[in-house]
Design goal:
Layout (H helix, E strand, L loop, with lengths): L1 E8 L9 E9 L4 E8 L8 H7 L3 H4 L5 H12 L3 E4 L2 H14 L8 E3 H8 L8 H8 L9 H18 L4 H11 L7 H6 L6 E6 L4 E7 L2 H10 L3 H9 L2 E6 L3 H15 L21 E6 L6 E7 L2 E8 L2 H4 L2 H7 L1 E2 L4 H13 L4 E4 L1
Parallel strand pairs: 1-4, 4-5
Antiparallel strand pairs: 1-2, 2-3, 6-7, 6-8, 9-10, 9-13, 10-11, 11-12
Length: 358
């Protein structure tokens, strides 16, 4: 579970700043499940340059709650979560300082979307939130206001989760949460899973033990836990938690499954040694568009120069029709004979929503 946040402050000397606005979105890796947004009376002056930047002035904050009045809500919504922010060290420092003034030690694990973006989307000219959103076609309204910046960070983080083939983000969160979820085992794990298409991950406390896929994630995991082979029983005894990623359709599920088996090499997966013949696509440059994970979202597979480049998800038409934006958004995939065969066979057997040739 993640608490994705943004904080606006008064500015001023280091560790003497006060909070003027805070927005927190609780995000389960798939959707927002809770949120808290509030102006805050910092009980101190706001620096003039900050007023110009954010538009927040002292008059707006006169009747806003003071930090101690919202502190309990912040603790509740972030409990058990990894804090995620763009420049997380700043937001975390501001929060811990405010809580320390109240005599309370506020400790949360953090993830920084600046650092994650630099790792997963290398070689960009700028990693400022506004510039990243422009490059990736992420809508950003209310720039330098907590709500607008936090919501844009949610969309950015969702994209970064998708691009994280090594599942480093997911592993970190799993380790933190799993220590509390050992007791009611297999049945309770299955009950929390969706009956939607996607890829699932079986975790120990430190590693991914098994990766699977299915048209219904819940059904696929249930069948796995009902197996009675020696290997399956060992897996069932080692499992600590199950996480998943919805893919919207079976093409993306098959591509993610093949790619992540190769990257993560889970202990309990067995892989058949099939020989795939190198094939050519009917169009050297095309975008395969199909349904996404929710209403209004589309999945995209990019083929350019007769090579598979990768896939992504998009909600916006201008992202879909702008090849430069798509190149930045995609999660790169190996242009292997296996992956090309998956796409070719899927296109032969299924009708996708759209094929865009360019």
């Amino acid at each position: 579970m993640y608490a994705i946040l943004d904080i606006e402050t008064t500015g001023g000397k280091y560790n003497e700043e006060g909070i003027t606005e805070i927005a927190i979105y609780k995000f389960d890796g798939h959707q927002i499940v809770d949120q808290f947004i509030s102006l805050v009376n910092p009980e101190r002056e706001i620096q003039p340059f900050v007023v110009n930047l954010t538009g927040i002035n002292s008059g707006m904050l006169k009747n806003a709650p003071k930090f101690y009045e919202i502190a309990k809500r912040i603790v509740e919504i972030t409990e058990g979560c990894v804090l995620v922010a763009h420049n997380a060290s700043f937001d975390n420092r501001i929060l811990t300082t405010e809580f320390r003034r109240l005599g309370f030690e506020f400790e949360r694990k953090t993830l920084c979307t600046v650092e994650l973006s630099q790792k997963l989307i290398p070689d960009l000219n700028s990693y400022k939130l506004g510039n990243l959103c422009k490059t990736l076609g992420i809508p950003l309204s209310g720039r330098h206001r907590a709500d607008g910046d936090a919501l844009a960070t949610v969309l950015l983080f969702k994209l970064l989760l998708n691009k994280d083939s090594y599942k480093e983000i997911l592993k970190e969160a799993a380790v933190k949460e799993n220590s509390r979820s050992l007791a009611p085992k297999l049945m309770s794990m299955i009950e929390e899973l969706p009956s939607k298409t996607g890829v699932f991950y079986i975790h120990s406390s430190t590693n991914i033990l098994y990766i699977g896929k299915g048209k219904s994630i819940k059904k696929a995991v249930n069948q796995l836990f009902l197996r009675t082979s020696k290997r399956a029983i060992l897996l069932q005894s080692d499992v600590v938690s199950v996480s998943y990623e919805e893919t919207g359709n079976q093409l993306i599920a098959a591509l993610k499954y093949a790619e992540e088996l190769k990257v993560n090499q889970p202990k309990y997966n067995t892989t058949a040694k099939n020989k795939f013949v190198q094939i050519s696509f009917s169009n050297a440059n095309m975008v395969v568009v199909d349904k996404g994970r929710n209403l209004g979202e589309k999945s995209v597979v990019l083929i350019e120069g007769n090579e598979l480049k990768g896939f992504c998800f998009t909600n916006l038409g201008y992202q879909l029709n702008n090849i430069e934006i798509l190149r930045c958004m995609i999660s790169p995939m190996e242009n292997s004979a296996h992956n090309r065969t998956i796409i070719k066979q899927y296109l032969q057997k299924n009708t996708v929503e759209k094929l865009i040739r360019f």
